[in-house]
Amino acid sequence: MDLTQLKMFCSVAETGSLARAAELLHRVPSNLTTRLRQLEQELGTDLFIREKQRLRLSPVGHNFLCYAQRILALSEEALSMTHSGEPGGNFALGSMESTAATRLPALLSAYHQQHPTVTLSLITGTSGEIIERVREGTLSAALADGPVNVNELNSCKAFDERMVLISSLSHAPIMQPSDAAGDTLFAFKPSCSYRLRFENWFRSAGVQPGTFMEIQSYHAMLACVASGAGLALLPESVLAQLPAAERIQRHKIPAEVSETATFLVWRRDAFTPNIKALKYLIIGQFDQAADASEALAD
User: Cys-Cys link to 126, which of 49, 53, 98, 192 (CB 3.0-4.6 A)?
Assistant: First the structure.
């Protein structure tokens, strides 16, 4: 299996036609037919369902297409890096939902202005999910809750975050975990680091947390909490952007629970120019924030 075969496979998959793919790749259809048959023989399975006038991807072909596209994207990024040493090519970046909503718009806008040749794709997920994908190499880097202690990975702080415990306006004051014992708790999947932080707050006090209900939207989470259905722990930066935030009350929680940070994470052996450019853009934002604080102090 080589890159030429993968390019042929992706082109046929995208066009659904050997003739059209051959035209785009400046080859004869018979050459594509031979190379694709060789690829299928090597893989030991059919990648296409062959009909009279067109080809359709088989179920295995659909899955293989995702891997083929990633391999080609990484090869393009690698060539760009080795040829110029400057940011360029494809850049697959992972992010938590909260970071994507509150921190990334301005950061990615600045990144695009400085490095317009980079084609950036953003994939969101829980911290556990995107850290694992960086470790596997299917994401170049990610913005995840940290610190991150994985042997294959390096990281640096990107943003400080403060977590907020919220309830309905009618809920009694929550001073300690026992005040919320038995309440329904709204959170993302078990691989969400914020959910783990929430669970550990209860367990460190010897209190069994209530039932967790998985919700994949902060808007829905806020609506459920405001209606009195339960509690949630979410970043203050997210809460500030949600409508109707005045319909809930905030409760003070210990600093070891409320204070956290988002880290930029990448593989130790893959610190590419694309990642380096993003890292130094983040460092520049820290410097700007520090200068602004000093100006206010003066």
Answer: 192
